Amino acid sequence: MDYFKLSLVLIVGLALKVSVAATAETNQTLPGYNYTCGNVAVPYPFGIGDSSRPGRGACSLEPKFSLTCNNESQLRWGDFEVLHIDPQGQWDTLFFVSKLCGQDAKSNAPWLRSSTFPVSSDKNQLITVGCDTYGYLDSVYDGNTYSTGCLTRCYGHYPNIIGSVGECTGIGCCEVKIPPSMTNITIQVYNFRNSTNLVGNCNYSFIAKNDSYKFDEQHLWDLPNETFPLVLDWTVGEDITCKDAEIRDDYACKSNSYCDQNNTYSGYRCRCHDGYEGNPYLNCTDIDECSSKDKPHNCTSPDCCHNTDGSFTCSCPKEGEGLDMVTKVVIGVGAGIVILFVSTTLLYFIHQKRKLVKLKEKYFRQNGGFTLLQQLSAGENSSQAFQIFTAEQLKQATNNFDESLIIGRGGYGTVFKGFLTDNRIVAIKKSKIVQENQNDENQKEQFINEVIVLSQINHRNVVKLLGCCLETEIPLLVYEFVSKGTLFDFIHTENSAWNVTWETRLRIASETAGALSYLHSAASIPIIHRDVKSANILLDDTYTAKVSDFGASRFVPLGQSELATMVQGTIGYLDPEYMQTSQLTEKSDVYSFGVVVVELLTGKKPFCFDGPEDERNLAMHFLSSLREDHLFEVLQFDILDEENKQGIMEVAMLAARCLRLNGEERPTMKEVTMELEGIKLMKNHPWTNADQILEESQYLLHEASSSIYEHGDSSSHQYTGYDSIRDRLPITLDDGR
Ligand SMILES: *[C@@H]1O[C@H](CO)[C@@H](O)[C@H](O)[C@H]1NC(C)=O
Ligand SMILES: *[C@@H]1O[C@H](CO)[C@@H](O)[C@H](O)[C@H]1NC(C)=O
Ligand SMILES: *[C@@H]1O[C@H](CO)[C@@H](O)[C@H](O)[C@H]1NC(C)=O
Ligand SMILES: *[C@@H]1O[C@H](CO)[C@@H](O)[C@H](O)[C@H]1NC(C)=O
Ligand SMILES: *[C@@H]1O[C@H](CO)[C@@H](O)[C@H](O)[C@H]1NC(C)=O
Ligand SMILES: *[C@@H]1O[C@H](CO)[C@@H](O)[C@H](O)[C@H]1NC(C)=O
Ligand SMILES: *[C@@H]1O[C@H](CO)[C@@H](O)[C@H](O)[C@H]1NC(C)=O
Ligand SMILES: *[C@@H]1O[C@H](CO)[C@@H](O)[C@H](O)[C@H]1NC(C)=O
Ligand SMILES: *[C@@H]1O[C@H](CO)[C@@H](O)[C@H](O)[C@H]1NC(C)=O
Ligand SMILES: *[C@@H]1O[C@H](CO)[C@@H](O)[C@H](O)[C@H]1NC(C)=O
Ligand SMILES: *[C@@H]1O[C@H](CO)[C@@H](O)[C@H](O)[C@H]1NC(C)=O
Questions:
Q1: pTM above 0.70, yes or no
Q2: pLDDT confidence of 18, banded at 50, 70, 90?
Q3: What are the pLDDT digits (tens) for 406-454?
Q4: If we measure between CA atoms, which residue out of 433, 366, 555 comes closest to residue 17?
Q5: In angstroms, what is the span from residue 27 Cα to ligand 1's centroid?
Q6: Which ligand has the minimum distance to the alpha carbon of residue 89?
Q7: 269, 88 in Cβ contact below 8 A?
Q8: 487-728 has which CATH code?
Q9: If you take atom 12 of ligand 8, which residue's CA is the nearest one?
Q10: What mean pLDDT is reported for the chain?
Q11: Cα separations in angstroms, 25 against 28, 395, 404, 464
Q12: Running DSSP on this structure, what letter comes out for residue 97?
């Protein structure tokens, strides 16, 4: 086999699209989401898109969850006031009463013009009040109208109504359940009797939360309320099944939670596993049953109760003797049954074990294990550190893939922390993709060659692949463990005390640039990373940067400088030129790197759904700030002092060049690395260069701005672009993690 030729083909793309090792104690939480507005808590995934609150931290998961906080006191969703948000999937608002008073009056028809949130079917009723009145609820969806309603009669006899006060019996007042999935609703009320001798003079119809309305005969004359509380359902995503959601980068259910779905609503909800509590979109935490009052333990005494992760155990001192005859017999029979059961199970397991060994062999062969062994023994010296692990070893290392050892969850797989018997700590990545064509040998070989090449990348700032396991259906990859988590978490986690100095940031940028430059030019075959982002840069104890996640990377065939590919990447980091042309070049990495540098400079997320439109895309916002000479306003202020002002300015200029729309005008990673090195050394330079830099900056900015406008003349162009691209392309839409 021609080893190189094979390696040149698409990477892991098919065989192992494993998103990277978020190889560390990544806080799955997005801390800081504890906002309240007035008295209403705003739990994530909801967020507040109010520019008076800094965008970071207040981001919602999706645009539809973006609320506003008026005057710091009233939480609003469009025209509607939000009364309460239940993290379990519902929220309360106030909705209007449809009203018809007097002979010639026309009824108003309140309209909740949204197809995003259906009216909750189990928490509301449609209520109609009046005499000979009918009220109905329409839901208009996809051009079709769905209706429900009820009608009242009074027979013109006042006493009948007196009898029904307090209850909605159909006389003077009727109520009806609301069918599921009603969105985009209007309510209307009509009177069907042409007669003047009816009781009262008004007719009403409205939706009200359970128990928020009590009928009273007075209401036939005047209902004091113009609005009633209404419960709406919310779910994450739209038209997506749990199965599909779970393998996506933007999967919303965090640690110790699961995806919940039923066909009465589109999208999905997250729920904590039994034994856990909290906000499943952030982090479910263990319930201490032994001291909890809501979920009490059932041990005989509190002293016997021991809390465990997700559960509890009871172990009390033995009760001892004194069993009567009946108990003994029962125990005897029980023991017999148990023994029978155990021996049957044992036989079964022996049989299974044999099958398992066979299966392992099959997977080993399928996954190209023999080819790999050949390659390794063919004398590739540099692969000496590369190891083939058995399934048993990795199972042991991760305590049978214990959920509590999960340190990262990407779109393509799960990463566990593992403890090898030789005391090494590793990160083990388990891919989720099951190949469609199990027998595609060629594909297997690509995967194997892939693994070998990656294992040979030996760079201080690239996460090291230590080995893999081929005995399982889906290959497992073993990486070095990087202790401090992702750069993204460090920049954007509010309480992570990201007070790391400018020098460290500069070093991280420079190390990352060095690694990318190595991949682009120095590695034996050029590699385009294709998903450069702060979440793919890990930090070790000394804040040394390690580039990770080659799940989307591509080798560039020698003598070729661009590749036509399916556009893939992460929103906010994605090279706009690549997006338009689908031509992948190493300059796409340069663009993404530019965005990472801007993150380091500003401390802001690359993309935020909330906030003013022109600030959603960080790169664009940064460039326009530069252009308008507001650079120092977008910087994270605490990194700035007189001494490093010049360096910061130069780095900002460099980032602006990386972010040019025209890839050819961007510097190469090698040039970027050299410049960053230069800036690092220049630290103690005299301050006199500043004027020159300013001059240069004006020139550069002029260029940058003209190129921005080449592709459209308003800033909204950027956003529209995002919309249509999200619809068309497999982009990891991850606003963050
Ligand atoms: C979840 O929250 C608990 C307590 O706040 C914390 O100890 C734990 O580390 C968090 N887990 C994750 C995965 O963030
Ligand atoms: C969130 O806010 C609530 C109410 O203001 C408070 O009780 C709770 O401790 C806060 N949680 C965190 C993690 O700050
Ligand atoms: C904001 O609230 C304060 C106090 O409730 C009130 O005086 C002020 O008029 C409000 N401003 C607006 C714009 O509603
Ligand atoms: C609300 O009303 C529905 C239908 O009448 C009923 O099934 C449900 O239990 C009620 N829920 C509450 C919280 O009262
Ligand atoms: C909502 O209803 C209006 C008319 O009542 C209709 O024009 C509109 O298309 C509906 N929206 C959706 C998303 O169906
Ligand atoms: C009501 O009925 C009377 C006769 O019974 C008729 O003259 C009148 O036009 C009707 N009014 C309406 C609004 O239909
Ligand atoms: C309902 O509407 C009709 C027609 O507008 C009006 O005559 C009547 O007084 C209203 N009230 C009741 C209780 O029917
Ligand atoms: C309706 O109005 C009455 C009188 O103002 C008030 O007591 C009641 O709480 C209101 N009901 C709701 C659900 O707002
Ligand atoms: C779907 O979810 C709703 C709301 O949680 C629940 O009331 C209903 O019973 C569920 N339906 C099914 C079929 O599980
Ligand atoms: C005690 O709780 C455990 C777990 O919740 C349950 O499996 C067991 O049946 C309970 N025992 C009794 C006596 O209720
Ligand atoms: C994770 O969260 C905990 C508590 O919220 C905090 O103490 C810790 O520093 C965080 N770790 C990282 C890597 O952000």
A1: no
A2: very low
A3: 887 765 578 889 988 888 889 988 876 544 444 455 555 556 666 766 7
A4: 433
A5: 7
A6: 9
A7: yes
A8: 1.10.510.10
A9: 228
A10: 75
A11: 8, 20, 11, 18
A12: P
User: Can you tell me which atom of ligand 8 is nearest the CA of 229?
Assistant: 13
What kind of architecture, by CATH, is found in domain 365-480? 2-Layer Sandwich (3.30)
User: What confidence category does residue 687 fall into, taking pLDDT thresholds of 50, 70 and 90?
Assistant: very low
Does the Cβ of 216 fall within 6 Å of ligand 8? no
Distance CA 87, CA 281 (A): 9
**Which range among 42-51, 216-225, 397-406, 685-694 shows the weakest confidence by mean pLDDT?**
685-694
Amino acid at 331: I
Q: Does 317 or 120 have the greater pLDDT score? A: 120
Side chain identity at residue 591, one-letter code:
Y
| Predicted local distance difference test score (pLDDT) of residue 727 | 34
In sequence order, which residues have a C-beta less than 8 Å from that of residue 391 and are 6 or more positions away? Answer: 360, 469, 471, 472, 476
Long-range contacts of 725-729 (CB under 8 A, 24+ apart): 725/567, 725/579, 726/571, 729/566, 729/567, 729/568, 729/579
Q: Is 295 annotated as a binding residue?
A: no
Question: Which atom of ligand 2 is nearest to 36's Cα?
Answer: 5
Q: Which fold has domain 90-233?
A: Jelly Rolls (2.60.120)
Q: How far apart are CA 231 and CA 112, in angstroms?
A: 12
Residues contacting 244, CB < 8 A, separation 6+: none
Lowest mean pLDDT among 384-398, 561-575, 609-623: 561-575
Residues 206/156, Cβ–Cβ less than 8 Å:
no
**Active site amino acids:** 531
The span from the CA of 728 to the CA of 132, in Å, is 53
Q: Is 168 left (phi over 0), alpha (psi -120 to 50) or beta?
A: beta
Residue carrying the six token digits 């034996």: 524
Distance (Å, whole) CA 335 – CA 478: 45
Q: How many angstroms does the Cα of residue 565 sit away from the middle of ligand 10?
A: 56
User: What does the pLDDT read at residue 695?
Assistant: 55
The verdict on the CB of residue 34 being under 6 Å from ligand 2 is yes
Asked if residue 52 has its Cβ within 6 Å of ligand 3, the reply is no
Question: Domain residue spans in the chain?
Answer: 23-86, 90-233, 365-480, 487-728
Residue type, 703: E
